[in-house]
Each structure stands twice: as C-alpha cells, then as structure tokens.
Design goal:
Blueprint (H helix, E strand, L loop, with lengths): L1 H6 L10 H10 L6 E4 L25 H13 L4 E4 L11 H10 L3 E6 L4 H4 L2 H4 L4 E5 L17 E8 L5 H14 L3 E6 L5 H16 L5 E3 L12 H4 L2 E2 L4 E3 L21 E2 L25 H11 L9
Parallel strand pairs: 1-2, 1-8, 2-3, 3-4, 4-5, 5-6, 6-7
Antiparallel strand pairs: 8-9, 9-10
C-alpha cells in the first residue's frame, strides 16, 4: 500500500498540502499544485489499448504560451510539472527547452514515456533535472528491449496488461526489472474494459501480481462517477490541442470515442491562470462514467461544505 500511495496519483496526497486546503476552505479558491502536460500527439508506437487512438497525430503545443502559463501558475503556488502522453513527450521538439524552463522556475518534474527515444531525445543535463521518470514497459509489446536511462531521481516501470501480453513479454519485463532495478513496477489493467471485465481483471491480476513480490505491485482501476468534479483546479491537464481538460483520464470514458473529445474541454490553455482568480465552480461530469478520481473529488466536496459536526471524526 505504501508503494501504491507513493507512486500513483489516485491517493489523497492533497492532505499533505495544508496551505492549499486552508486557502480553499477560507476562500473557496484553489491553488494549482501540479500541472500535467501532454505536449505532442506524435507517437512512435501504436499500442492496441491506446485510449487516444483516434487523435489527430500531428498536434504540438506552442512553446511561447506554454511557458507563460507555467510562469503564471508558479506565481499562484504550483509546485510540480508532469510531462506525459497522448503521444510520447520525447517527440515534442521543445522537450529539452521545456524541462529546462520549468527547472529554472524551481518546479519539480516527472516524465512519462515509452522509453524508446528517451536517451536519444533528452540530454544528460535534462535527465538529471527530473525528480522521476516512469517508463511504459508496453514498449516490450513491440520491441525486444529498451535502454532505460540512469537518472539522479527515481526510475519506475509501468505495464498495462493487454491482449498482446504473453509469457515471453513477462519474461522480458522480468529481465529489464533485474537489469535496471527500478524503484517499482506498476501493473495495471486495460482501462478500455467494461465494468464487469474490470472487476474480473482486478481480482485475477491483483492475485497474480501480488505473488511476484517487490518491486511489483498491482494498481486496481475502479470506475465510478463523482457527483461533482473539482480535480482540474488542483491538477490541471494541458493537452497537445491547447485545451485544458478536467484530468488526463477523461479519455477513458465510454463516450470519448478514444480521443480527448471536445465535450470534455474546460478552458483554453492561455486562460487557465485566470480561473484561480475566481471561486471554484464544479465542472460538469455528466459524461464521466470512468472516473478514477472520485475519492479526491469527494474530499474536495467535503471541504466545500463543512458542518458543525466536523470535530467528531
């Protein structure tokens, strides 16, 4: 459980930011803690489980407005940046410059990639600026091996169990784990599954991975619809199309059509800093039947409506 809470984003880490909680309780305004950025839709793989498979595959964020947004959010209290996919961030031509800029602002950074081009595209100087890097070992579904970089920060692996998974791939995952000694190896189910399939996957895969021992752990995916959504205020997600979405998981919803559908859009990237000048307003969630952030949203909803019994915990 300690590994799960440390290396995933579906826990309640918000409680470790009492300044953010206190400010929200007092003003009903938010402070952005972490920013997720998917800077490009370009990818060098075509994974069978890709939840963004129907994207426009040639979209890239412009550097100029992005750095302005990072600067303004840093001024509003932002602490970290996560570079992630919807493509692979190594294929964004400004990735080294973007990481260096965020580092210059004093932001901690994480990086998610399939790993194939990390050593080719990121400089050694840039790699050493990362707090952590998570390699999607589903690259082994398509290539025999991957050269995992050494960094000063934490290296972790993640693998989505899917229709291509077989014993040969598991053996090669084991080989890479022994060779590179990642801090953790997270196994997750294919989130394109139905609720019934997901329950079965969580039971069967959870038991199997549990037998593997350290550094492996299984992260169950449990979908449910929140009554209200606030998560984007605290961890906004900027996609390569220049829009901010409530989270990076809206693409998992059954009506998303395997893309970040425009019905999930929240605000344009350049307007994001200004939402923090206003009181928080719940985001529409009528299309979100595969939410993985319900506990966080329930926590924020509770902070929004305290009562005279809160001392009786």
């Amino acid at each position: 459980m300690e590994t799960l809470e440390t290396y995933t984003s579906t826990g309640i880490k918000l409680l470790h930011h009492p300044d953010v909680v206190s400010y929200y309780k007092g003003t009903k305004k938010a402070i952005p803690v972490s920013l997720q950025i998917a800077p490009t839709s370009r990818c060098n793989l075509n994974c069978v489980f890709c939840s963004n498979a129907n994207r426009n595959s040639h979209e890239d964020l412009d550097m100029s407005p992005l750095v302005k947004v990072m600067l303004e959010l840093k001024g509003r209290g932002m602490k970290t940046v996560e570079w992630t996919g919807g493509g692979d961030p190594t294929l964004w031509e400004n990735i080294n410059e973007g990481i260096c800029y965020a580092d210059g602002l004093g932001l901690e950074q994480g990086f998610i990639s399939n790993g194939i081009l990390v050593n080719d595209k990121l400089t050694r100087q840039v790699l050493d600026k990362l707090k952590w890097i998570r390699i999607s070992m589903n690259c082994l579904d398509y290539v025999d091996s991957v050269d995992v970089p050494k960094i000063r920060g934490t290296v972790g692996f993640s693998y989505v169990w899917n229709e291509r998974t077989d014993e040969d791939i598991i053996q090669r995952l084991t080989y890479h784990t022994r060779k590179y000694k990642p801090r953790y190896v997270r196994i997750v189910p294919n989130c394109q599954a139905s609720h019934e399939e997901q329950e079965r996957n969580n039971l069967v895969l959870g038991e199997r991975v549990g037998e593997w021992g350290f550094p492996y752990f299984y992260q169950a995916k449990n979908f449910s619809a929140p009554r209200h959504c606030y998560w984007a205020y605290f961890k906004p997600f900027i996609l390569h199309d220049g829009w901010v979405y409530p989270c990076s998981s809206v693409v998992l919803n059954t009506t998303s059509e395997k893309t970040f559908h425009d019905k999930f859009r929240w605000v344009k990237m350049e307007n994001l800093p200004y939402v923090y000048d206003e009181r928080v307003s719940p985001i529409i969630v009528s299309h979100c039947d595969h939410c993985v952030f319900k506990p966080q949203n329930d926590l924020i909803a509770e902070l929004s409506a305290p009562n005279d019994m809160i001392n009786f915990i």
